[in-house]
Design brief:
Elements lengths: L1 E3 H11 L7 H17 L1 H14 L1 E2 L5 E2 L5 H15 L2 E3 L5 E2 L13 H11 E2 L17
Parallel strand pairs: 5-6
Antiparallel strand pairs: 1-4, 2-3
Length: 139
């Protein structure tokens, strides 16, 4: 499955809304959260490099993009958009639809549930019925 860095960020945000998920849903969320977090490390490095290049260092040692320096903000936004759009091959751990139990969340939206199911649920492969041998009729 190919996902952009932006899609990975959205999926991780979605996972955070299901902290009490149990069973296979909880396992799938935890396992894929670890997988996606590891994939996002390269993005974080690129983002931090861009922040250092175009940002201003704050008192606490972090970097921020100054909206008053519109040229830096425009360049940062252009370059970060390119990095957010990079596609990565991901092999998520998924649950078969007939084994999926929808986890409860009091903070998740309909879109969060849709994203969760789209990413974590797969269809069971249709097993081919055994081929029956047909006998030729005598005429």
């Amino acid at each position: 499955m190919k996902l952009t860095n932006l899609a990975i960020i959205n999926i991780l945000n979605c996972f955070s809304k299901f902290p009490l998920a149990t069973g296979k849903a909880g396992y799938a969320i935890a396992r894929n959260k670890r997988l996606l977090s590891n994939e996002l490390k390269d993005f974080e490095e690129a983002r931090n490099a861009l922040l250092q290049k175009y940002g201003t260092k704050t008192k606490d040692g972090n970097y921020t993009i100054d909206p008053n320096k519109s040229e830096n903000a425009e360049i940062f936004n252009k370059e970060i958009s390119e990095v957010l759009g990079i596609e990565i091959d991901i092999e998520p751990w998924q649950v078969f639809r007939d084994e999926w139990e929808i986890p409860y969340s009091d903070s998740a939206s309909v879109n969060d549930y849709d994203l969760l199911e789209t990413f974590l649920v797969k269809e069971r492969p249709v097993e081919e019925a055994p081929k029956q041998k047909t006998k030729a009729k005598k005429s």
